[in-house]
Design goal:
CATH topology of the largest domain: Transferase(Phosphotransferase), domain 1
Order of helices and strands: EHEHHHHHHHEE
Shape: extended
Largest sheet: 2 strands, antiparallel
CATH architecture of the largest domain: Orthogonal Bundle
Strand content: 5-15%
Number of strands: 4
Number of helices: 8
Number of domains: 2
Structural class: mainly alpha
CATH superfamily of the largest domain: Transferase(Phosphotransferase) domain 1
Length: about 220
């Protein structure tokens, strides 16, 4: 995401030139993760790079809004959810998706514009799939967007969560380091005394109302 909040998604490890052989724009290399592959890619067919890119972006867009993939794999023979899309049973597909949202405590429904765009991006037939130019003029794409200040606020909140999570992990790492040092000290002390018969471990006891922790050995 750049400073103007424009999101760019790429996977250079799985990329190839769109022009293909002899500028035919037809490709045969099977690249990418199956979760994002268009059906023609999964079936090992010759494909158009722009068409499969739109499909992959449709999967990503759905995941960004739903926090889950629309299906595991675009194979109507093995995946029931994708079969619903491939057979244009869109209403049933979205009923299932919204029930999944409800299970996760989300009461908000998908908008009609969003459903329409995803249906067109995940179209089974490559030549019937929406193009990038058509996406840019789609009602969902051109519709009302959140004010920039709201985006900044949301990203700042998410940054805070990431930082707190990082700090918590660093604290856990420090606890592990401290424990390892204590184990090492115990081991060394044990070797010096010829055993660990005097070790009582960490045991709290009360003295004068204050709780103290006995260290490695009884005094």
């Amino acid at each position: 995401m750049d400073q103007n909040f424009k999101l760019k998604v790429s996977g250079f490890g799985f990329s190839t030139l769109l022009a293909g052989h002899f500028n035919s724009y037809l490709l045969t290399t099977r690249v990418g993760n199956e979760a994002y592959m268009a059906p023609e890619l999964i079936q090992g067919e010759v494909y158009n790079g722009a068409h499969v890119d739109v499909f992959a972006c449709g999967v990503i867009l759905f995941a960004l809004l739903s926090r889950k993939a629309p299906f595991d794999k675009a194979d109507k023979k093995t995946n029931i959810l994708y079969k619903l899309l491939a057979e244009k049973k869109h209403e049933k597909f979205w009923q299932v998706q919204e029930k999944e949202l409800e299970k996760n405590g989300v009461t908000q429904k998908y908008s009609a514009e969003f459903k329409d765009l995803i249906n067109k991006m995940l179209e089974h037939e490559p030549t019937d799939r929406i193009t990038i130019e058509e996406i840019k003029s789609h009602a969902w794409y051109t519709g009302e967007a959140a004010p920039l200040i709201c985006l900044v606020s949301e990203l700042e909140d998410k940054l805070k969560i990431v930082q707190e999570t990082h700090e918590a992990k660093e604290l856990e790492k420090q606890k592990v380091k401290d424990l390892r040092r204590q184990i090492k000290a115990l081991s060394q002390a044990s070797n010096q005394t010829g055993g660990i018969s005097n070790f009582v471990g960490y045991r709290p006891f009360r003295s004068g109302g204050d709780e103290t922790v006995i260290d490695f050995f009884e005094s």
